[in-house]
């Protein structure tokens, strides 16, 4: 006969075991219980081209029966969430160069899931009306005749963006500070406004930018050569996520996400719809998905 104290200990142990087992079951099915699952947390950059890419992912997840919570912010806010395992997915990381510093710091426990597009890159550009014969390279900006006409305040976006860091390096590498150029970080609205005002006034301006980005669609921006290679080469943009959190997603979801490929032209077009047609990122994504329904259904295995 078992002593009462022993019986109580066995009962407590059994209850603890059952509670632990139940917790394990909840953890492994937390994304699959219809109507009661926690949302998939999707982190994304605060620029519109990230937002449309993230919106495609959100549409996919919702078709798969998930609810989605979006967390949006600048690089210096979103990448730490990836490193801390505080989000399930992130759209997007540029590799191997574009976000290499952030990835080295915050991507150790994360992995690439899908390649959204190839050909991502940073560059400086000038409006098409600036003669190529006078300005074809970043190095040309130092020429006295060019420096005299060019707006020497180069307006960029946030301080934590890679294009900001690289642009500041370019000013030093090409000795542009010596002839009066300076780089100012700011909001995306300030960056676009500086370009639009210059074009409206037909003024010469240096525009630090990247692809994909909606202004590339109309062909009115001319990229400058970068003979020193300061702004880097081409990248691919990937959907990523912390390994431990990815393992909790249903296999069907992981497989569907791994098939996503939008292409740089698709992202550029959606970004244009947002910025020119004034649609929301979700509306732009839905229009793109509708136009590519067959491909999207193949991602879902339908």
Description:
With 302 residues, the protein is α/β, with parallel strands linked by helices. It is 43% helix and 20% strand. It contains 12 helices and 9 strands. The strands form 2 sheets. Strands 1, 2, 3, 4, 7, 8 and 9 form a 7-stranded mixed β-sheet that branches. Strands 5-6 form a two-stranded parallel ribbon. Helix 2 links the parallel strand 1 and strand 2.
Give the number of domains.
2
Termini, distance in Å? 61 Å
Helix content: 40-55%
Radius of gyration: 24 Å
Count the helices. How many?
Answer: 12
* Structural class by secondary-structure content: alpha/beta
Instruction: Please count the beta strands (DSSP E, at least 2 residues each).
Output: 9
Summarize the structure.
The protein has 302 residues and is α/β, with parallel strands linked by helices.
Q: Which key features would you list for this structure?
A:
302 residues, alpha/beta, D-Maltodextrin-Binding Protein, domain 2, 2 domains, 7-stranded mixed sheet, two-stranded parallel ribbon, 12 helices, 43% helix
Topology of this structure?
Layout: H1 4-28, E1 40-45, H2 48-63, E2 68-73, H3 75-83, E3 89-95, H4 100-106, E4 110-127, H5 144-149, E5 153-155, H6 162-173, E6 182-184, H7 188-201, E7 207-211, E8 221-223, E9 235-242, H8 243-246, H9 251-258, H10 264-275, H11 281-291, H12 293-299
Parallel strand pairs: 1-2, 1-3, 5-6
Antiparallel strand pairs: 3-9, 4-7, 4-8, 4-9
Helix pairs in contact: 2-10, 2-11, 3-4, 10-11
């Amino acid at each position: 006969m078992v002593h009462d104290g022993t019986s109580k200990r066995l009962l407590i142990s059994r209850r603890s075991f059952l509670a632990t087992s139940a917790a394990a079951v909840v953890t492994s099915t937390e994304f699959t219980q219809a109507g009661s699952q926690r949302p998939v947390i999707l982190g994304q950059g605060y620029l519109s081209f990230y937002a449309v890419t993230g919106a495609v992912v959100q549409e996919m997840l919702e078709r798969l029966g998930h609810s989605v919570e979006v967390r949006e912010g600048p690089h210096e806010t979103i990448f730490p969430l990836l490193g801390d395992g505080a989000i399930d997915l992130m759209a997007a990381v540029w590799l191997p160069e574009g976000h290499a510093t952030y990835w080295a710091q915050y991507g150790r426990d994360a992995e690439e899931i899908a390649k959204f597009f190839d050909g991502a890159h940073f560059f400086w550009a000038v409006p098409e009306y600036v003669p190529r014969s006078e300005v074809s390279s970043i190095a040309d900006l130092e020429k006295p005749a060019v420096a005299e006409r060019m707006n020497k305040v180069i307006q960029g976006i946030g301080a934590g963006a890679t294009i900001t860091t690289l642009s500041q390096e370019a000013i030093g590498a090409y000795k542009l500070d010596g002839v009066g150029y300076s780089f100012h970080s700011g909001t995306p609205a300030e960056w676009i406004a500086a370009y639009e005002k210059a074009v409206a006034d037909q003024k010469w301006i240096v525009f630090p930018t990247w692809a994909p980005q909606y202004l590339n669609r109309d062909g009115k921006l001319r990229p400058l050569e970068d003979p020193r290679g300061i702004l880097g080469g081409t990248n691919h943009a990937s959907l990523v996520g912390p390994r431990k959190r990815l393992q909790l997603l249903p296999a069907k979801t992981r497989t569907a996400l791994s098939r996503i490929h939008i292409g740089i032209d698709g992202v550029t077009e959606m970004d244009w719809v947002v910025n020119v047609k004034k649609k929301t990122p979700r509306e732009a994504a839905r229009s793109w998905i509708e136009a590519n329904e067959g491909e999207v259904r193949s991602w879902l295995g339908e």
